[in-house]
Amino acid sequence: MPKRILIGTVVSDKTDKTVTVKVERKVKHPLYGKIIRRSKKYHAHDEANEFKAGDTVRIEETRPISKTKTWKVLDRVQAGKGIAVEANLEVEGASN
């Protein structure tokens, strides 16, 4: 049986060697016909702790690694925009 591959966004990287990936899919409402978004979170194995929150990644189904972890991260599709920029809070000419 082929392994499933999903694309999602990393929402948490706080645990060691694990990232939480949110996968969204669009489905049609059975009665009203409107397209609605459904999402699910998966715990995926990240051996090198290289993926950060905001990254778009591909995950692949694998054997159970722990109680909740049955996915592993294959690669990064797109880097997140979570780069911190220092703000200059000193305002010139504002002193009395």
Q: The CATH topology, please?
A: OB fold (Dihydrolipoamide Acetyltransferase, E2P)
- What structural class do you assign from the helix and strand content? mainly beta
Averaged pLDDT = 89
Please list the strands of the largest sheet in the order they lie side by side.
1-2-3-5-4
CATH superfamily membership, which one?
A: Nucleic acid-binding proteins
In the residues, how many domains can be counted? Answer: 1
CATH class: Mainly Beta
The largest sheet, given as strand count, sense and whether it forms a barrel, is:
5 strands, mixed, barrel
CATH architect. name: Beta Barrel
Number of helices: 0
Can you count the beta strands? 5
What best-fitting shape do the alpha-carbon axes yield? flat
Task: Annotate the secondary structure layout.
Layout: E1 5-12, E2 18-28, E3 35-45, E4 56-61, E5 69-78
Parallel strand pairs: 3-5
Antiparallel strand pairs: 1-2, 1-4, 2-3, 4-5
What does this protein look like?
It is a single chain. This protein is mainly β and 96 residues long. It has a single domain, classed as OB fold (Dihydrolipoamide Acetyltransferase, E2P), CATH 2.40.50. It has strands spanning 5-12, 18-28, 35-45, 56-61, 69-78. Strands 1-2-3-5-4 form a 5-stranded mixed barrel. A hairpin with a 7-residue loop joins strand 4 and strand 5 (69-78). The chain is flat and about 60 Å long. The termini are far apart. The model has no long low-confidence stretch (mean pLDDT 89).
